[in-house]
UniProtKB/TrEMBL annotation, chain A:
InterPro entries: NADH_UbQ_OxRdtase_chain4L/K (IPR001133), NUOK/Mnh_C1-like (IPR039428). NDH-1 is composed of 14 different subunits. Subunits NuoA, H, J, K, L, M, N constitute the membrane sector of the complex. GO terms for cellular component: NADH dehydrogenase complex; plasma membrane. It comes from Rhodopseudomonas palustris. It is a multi-pass membrane protein. GO terms for molecular function: NADH dehydrogenase (quinone) (non-electrogenic) activity; quinone binding. NDH-1 shuttles electrons from NADH, via FMN and iron-sulfur (Fe-S) centers, to quinones in the respiratory chain. The immediate electron acceptor for the enzyme in this species is believed to be ubiquinone. Couples the redox reaction to proton translocation (for every two electrons transferred, four hydrogen ions are translocated across the cytoplasmic membrane), and thus conserves the redox energy in a proton gradient. It is found in: Cell membrane; Membrane. This is NADH-quinone oxidoreductase subunit K. Its EC number is 7.1.1.-. It comes from the Bacteria. It is an enzyme of class 7 (translocase). Keywords: Cell membrane, Membrane, NAD, Oxidoreductase, Quinone, Translocase, Transmembrane, Transmembrane helix, Transport, Ubiquinone.
TrEMBL record, chain B:
It is found in: Endomembrane system; Membrane. Gene3D superfamilies: 1.20.5.2700. Residues 136-412 form the NADH:quinone oxidoreductase/Mrp antiporter transmembrane domain. This is Oxidoreductase. It is a multi-pass membrane protein. GO terms for biological process: ATP synthesis coupled electron transport; electron transport coupled proton transport. Its main location: membrane. PANTHER family: INORGANIC CARBON TRANSPORTER SUBUNIT DABB-RELATED, NADH-UBIQUINONE OXIDOREDUCTASE CHAIN 5. Keywords: Membrane, Transmembrane, Transmembrane helix. It comes from the Bacteria. The chain crosses the membrane at residues 7-26, 32-51, 58-79, 85-107, 119-137, 143-161, 173-195, 251-273, 279-300, 307-337, 374-397, 417-438, 450-477, 489-510, 667-684. It comes from Rhodopseudomonas palustris. GO terms for cellular component: endomembrane system; membrane. GO terms for molecular function: NADH dehydrogenase (ubiquinone) activity; NADH dehydrogenase activity.
């Protein structure tokens, strides 16, 4: 892997992360926000793998496994919250839970 | 046997996990047995460690490594220290916690089963966290334990979730200590960046080579964090309201162990503070301030738990004072003795208030001596130890050591000693006020039956320690690396007389309750911290009076308006009659002499000096000054400016609350922006 490949991969990773963050900020459905979070997490994961490949260091792949674990845990908590909100608020609109409004 | 040390907190942690997470219904007996057993086991496990330590196994700096995490740049080591400091504090915590949990097995037995299970689970988690704090030899374990005990404190203060008062008290404690914890975290991180290791001994070894400009903020931040946990002066407000929790919680967390965590941290980092003398001086000042103010406030309390809360504040103030003056061994000795007699006081007060129908008001305890003599007498012995009655109580030896350290602390020693001795006298007064009230006769002497071994054993052991523990004070100080101070006979005698004077004062106060009420009333109306009131009374009103007296001659429009307002009994300043000179001259207005005729319609000051040419010049100058300068600051302008300033906060709030929409995506936006700003900052500062 050459340096220009790495830069391309990093741009792709940053793009994935930006798409994910935009999705979380723009969407209102909780399900779609969770999917967008997954997309956002895949950005740094790609970055880790690419940097690991460039430096020929297995730690990059190790970090990817860590990101996967993190994503799994996050989805588990997120889905539990989603079910709970569906049951109490009767809707999957995330704007409905605004009890912290000032 | 030193390798047993890391397993000391384990039973408490297992107790928490079983009680909170195991999805099996447990009966009441099993819950109590599990909860109490998990808290007693650490004390039993600790015994062989302590024995091996006494046989010479522990020296300063010895540690038992648990695991190390290699992250490439540095190695994060997690270890428990095996030095005299952790032995003294750990032994105190384990013993007091075991006794309090035995007691609470009887005290909380009538709670509903889910609440009982929650109570024991949280107490066990707290014990595990507290043992982690006292044994920690690295900042990671220390901070984990520190946060655990803060969280447990919140959940135990808000234990009665049906009471809004308890929930808001818990929230207050959590927020106050969180703010302080943020300071602590910042300080520990900066210390880590400077030292490059997470081990406390490594950090302390790096202190002498550190730049003083880096050292002072680190020490200051850590001191603020520790003072917040210990409820010292700027952060003291959460402790009295924390008494909304159950009594055993107050006895364990909010008197003996958790609030003393700050003292333990300061003692452990003593070399760091010795290298930052200005921070040590600040710590000592805050300590003596809290010790004196806490004692004064405790004197006028009407609720026994509140009184004990303020007394805890005050006693920890003594420890912090000793730490600030560079005598950590003395502070630790006072910590150990204080933990024993303060938990004894709380536990026996719990028994007495149980007999008086659950009320914790001091008046409700009247007659406790006849209803429950053994609880009363153990309370009295605890109070004697708190007051520090000479020779016979443990409290005297440890407090005398603190006073001696204060006396021989350099040029400021004597005035500080006077303040501390006054606080010690007030300690005697407030401690014995409760004893005298509880010891007096009462009509209602029927006591509900309550007692048994679960209550008697803890009270008995703690009473024993509160009396005999004094013999160990010298040994404790020597063990933790301090040397007892030898001071002249006179301050020793005066220090011994202070608590006795306090007891006499308490006798007088109980005989004449109206005096105390008057003092209390006065103290409640001191609003020293209301800046705008001070500003108004000392600045605006005086300025108004002077400006209007100078500016408003009798007969001018403003004076006429003021007079009209006065007639409608509205207070308007600036009449000539407000001028003390004017009042003096008011009587003479009936017989006008030539000066009065010449200056008719002028203010009395003008009349006084207008007789001669120099006086006339003065008056002209004054008039020009008033007209050009003072009039610009006319009272209404000042008031309007001030009110506008105050009102602008309301408008600012109106604007600011719009930012908080409560929507998830807006929160995410703010988090994303904050992260981006941090990244930019990091990039900007590390760019070369």
């Amino acid at each position: 892997m050459t340096g220009s490949d790495l830069i391309g991969m990093m741009i792709l990773a940053a793009g994935l992360f930006a798409i994910g963050v935009f999705g979380v900020l723009a969407r209102r459905g909780i399900m779609f926000q969770l999917i967008a979070l997954e997309v956002a997490l895949s950005g740094p994961a790609l970055g880790f793998v690419a940097a690991g490949a460039y430096h020929a260091d297995p730690q990059g792949q190790g970090m990817f496994i860590l990101v996967l674990t993190l994503a799994a845990a996050e989805v588990a908590v997120g889905l539990a919250l989603f079910l709970r909100i569906r049951r109490t608020a009767g809707s999957d609109d995330s704007d409905i839970i605004s009890g912290m409004k000032g | 046997m030193a390798s047993l040390l890391p397993f000391v907190p384990v039973p408490a942690l297992i107790g928490f996990l079983v009680l909170s997470l195991m999805p099996v219904a447990l009966s009441r007996t099993v819950v109590i047995a599990l909860g109490v057993g998990a808290a007693v086991l650490p004390a039993i496990l600790f015994a062989p460690v302590a024995v091996s330590c006494l046989e010479g196994g522990c020296v300063a700096g010895a540690a038992v490594p648990i695991l190390s995490i290699d992250v490439g740049v540095f190695v994060a080591q997690i270890a428990m220290s095996l030095d005299p400091l952790s032995m003294v504090t750990g032994g105190t915590v384990a013993l007091v916690a075991a006794l309090v949990l035995i007691y609470s097995g009887a005290y909380m037995a009538s709670e509903p089963l889910p609440d009982l299970r929650r109570y024991f689970a949280l107490m066990n988690l707290f014990l595990a966290g507290m043992l982690a704090v006292v044994f920690a030899a690295d900042v990671i374990l220390l901070f984990l334990g520190w946060e655990t005990i803060g969280l447990c404190s919140f959940m135990l203060i808000a234990f009665y979730t049906k009471l809004p008062k308890a929930v808001s008290a818990g929230r207050k404690a959590l927020i106050t200590t969180r703010v302080a914890d943020a300071f602590l975290l910042a300080g520990l991180m900066m210390l880590f960046l400077s030292a490059g290791t997470t081990r406390l001994d490594g950090m302390l070894a790096a202190v002498p080579a550190m730049d003083p400009w880096r050292l002072a903020p680190i020490a200051g931040l850590i001191a603020l964090g520790a003072l917040g946990k210990s409820a010292q002066f700027p952060f003291h407000t959460w402790l009295p309201s924390a008494m909304a929790g159950p009594t055993p919680v107050s006895a364990l967390l909010h008197s003996a162990t958790m609030v003393a965590a700050g003292v333990i941290l300061l003692a452990r980092l003593a070399p760091l503070f010795a290298a930052a003398p200005e921070i040590s001086a600040m710590v000592a000042m805050l300590g003596i301030l809290t010790a004196a103010a806490g004692a004064l406030i405790a004197l006028i309390q009407t609720d026994v738990k509140k009184l004990l809360a303020f007394s805890t504040m005050s006693q920890i103030g003594f420890m912090v004072l000793a730490l600030g003056l560079g005598a950590p061994a003395v502070a630790l000795a006072h910590f150990a003795i204080h933990a024993a007699f303060k938990s004894l006081l709380f536990l026996s007060a719990g028994v007495m208030s149980h007999a008086s129908g659950g009320s914790t008001a001091i008046e409700a305890l009247r007659g406790a001596r006849y209803r429950q003599p053994w609880a009363f007498w153990s309370f009295a012995i605890g109070a004697a130890s708190l007051a520090g009655l000479p020779v016979i109580t443990a409290g005297w030896y440890s407090k005398e050591a603190v006073l001696a350290a204060v006396w021989s602390s350099g040029p400021c020693g004597v005035p500080l000693w006077l303040l501390a001795a006054t606080a010690a006298m007030l300690t005697g007064a407030y401690a014995f006020r409760v004893v005298f009230v509880a010891g007096s006769q009462s009509a209602d002497l029927a006591a509900p039956p309550w007692g048994g071994a679960a209550v008697m054993v803890p009270l008995g052991v703690l009473t024993f320690v509160a009396v005999v523990g004094g013999l160990s004070v010298g040994a404790l100080i020597g063990f933790t690396g301090g040397a007892p101070e030898h001071i002249p006979l006179l301050p020793t005698l005066l220090g011994a007389a202070a608590p006795i004077l306090g007891v006499v004062l308490a006798r007088q106060l109980v005989r004449h309750p109206r005096e105390l009420e008057r003092v209390a009333h006065r103290l409640r109306h001191v609003r020293a911290f209301r800046i705008e009131i001070l500003y108004y009374y000392y600045f605006v009103r005086r300025f108004r009076t002077i400006a209007t007296v100078l500016g408003n001659a009798d007969g001018t429009e403003a004076a006429a308006q003021a007079a009209a307002l006065r007639r409608e009994s509205i207070d308007a300043p600036g009449l000539a009659a407000d001028d003390p000179l004017g009042r003096a001259f008011g009587g003479e207005a009936a017989q006008p002499d030539f000066i009065a005729r010449a200056t008719d319609g002028q203010t009395p000051v003008v009349r006084l000096v207008s007789g001669d040419p120099v006086g006339r010049i003065l008056i002209v100058v004054a008039r020009v000054f008033v007209g050009s300068f003072v009039a610009r600051f006319s009272p209404d302008q000042i008031d309007r400016g001030w009110m506008g300033f105050a009102g602008s906060f309301g408008h600012a709030w109106e604007q600011a609350r719009r930012l908080q929409t409560g929507r998830v995506r807006d929160h995410s936006l703010w988090i994303a922006l904050g992260c981006a700003a941090l990244l930019l900052y990091a990039w900007g500062t590390s760019w070369r």
